[in-house]
Amino acid sequence: MRLKKAVNIVKSYDKKIYIAMNAEIEREMIPLLLEKRVADYASWGCDGLIIKTPEFMKAVSKSYPDFEIVASVGCHIDSEKKLRYYHSMGATTFVLSTELRRNHEKIKELKAVASQLGMKTEIIVSGTACYKGVGNCNFFKYFKDAFERITLVDSDGFVTEKVFGNPEKGGGCYRPCLYLDDPIVQQLVPKDVLIEIRKEKNLNERFTLAKDVPSLIEIGIDIFKIQGREYPVDLVAELTRIFRQIIDKSLKSKNPDITQELREIEKLGRELDTRRMIYTGNLREKLYEKLEIYLKTKSTS
Ligand code: SF4
């Protein structure tokens, strides 16, 4: 019901709304989700869904051909081959892999293919990029003993499950890549894997592409995304306002003066980093709590 309210609010402003269903969805859940969820979203006037699971995309596009289907950032689309694959599964928009965020040549190339296929191109301009690109990291799997199954029962009795610690299953990640020196990380991750991951720069980096917006508009990017989860609404709203200004200026001029906006975004970035550090610290504590319980259980069994 809260979702329905959200749809109504968005529609009262004559804006678009997309619902994220971008965890990995088990094949047997698909008919149920179509019947119990997607049917409602369509009847409420949602514009589309953000999806990661190819079979689910296919099923939605078959039953709801007018729905926009966004191939989520979790699809890690970084090549023409992958782009064509998700298009064949019904995607009408694709989110560029975070791995390519600074590679304008590649962005141009994929945008050209997407346009040929009649797809829109979306890029995250403010968010975090996982190691090897969102949806492409395996590091979190070394912490599977701390995964926590959470059963969710909606107001209509519909039951779903997510797994905390596993970003592919709808839960967050413990972000162990951000505290590699921690004793528990050292204990659970093979030495050679740790050596390799230490060679990487910017693990789970928060990034902004604010200064790239004018060139991205020139390339023809259709949609700019600002990741909002884990940050307070006022902070995300302010970020959105500034990006809007940059976009508007870039639409008017090829060389817009965005100095002031970049300064404001840098300032907001410091605030985002502080929030992220606090949140990551809490995740680390939770991981410790989970694993200590597990280790104790193991030693007494
Ligand atoms: S936060 Fe770190 S460990 Fe988790 S998925 Fe991203 S890169 Fe991998």
> Could you tell me the mean pLDDT?
92
Listed once per kind, the bound small molecules are: iron/sulfur cluster
- Basic shape: globular
The beta-strand count equals 9
Order of H and E elements: HEHEHEHEHEEEHHEHEHH
Strand content: 5-15%
- Rg over CA atoms, rounded to whole Å, is 20 Å
Separation of the first and last Cα atoms = 45 Å
H/I helix tally: 10
Question: What's the helical proportion of residues?
Answer: 40-55%
Q: How would you sum up the major sheet? A: 7 strands, mixed
* Contiguous uncertain segments of 5+ residues: none
Query: Which oligomerization state do the chains in this entry correspond to?
Result: single chain
Please identify the structural class as seen in this structure: alpha/beta
How would you describe the overall organization of this protein?
There is one protein chain. With 301 residues, the chain is an alpha/beta fold. It has a domain at 72-126 and 206-300. It is 47% helix and 15% strand. The protein has helices spanning 2-12, 30-44, 54-63, 80-88, 104-117, 183-188, 191-198, 213-219, 233-252, 259-300, and strands at residues 18-21, 48-51, 68-71, 93-95, 120-129, 148-153, 159-164, 205-208, 223-226. Strands 1, 2, 3, 4, 5, 8 and 9 form a seven-stranded mixed beta sheet that branches. The protein has a two-stranded antiparallel ribbon with strand order 6-7. Helix 9 (233-252) packs antiparallel against helix 10. The model has no long low-confidence stretch (mean pLDDT 92). It binds iron/sulfur cluster. Iron/sulfur cluster binds at residues 130-131, 137, 139-140, 167, 173, 175-177, 203-204.
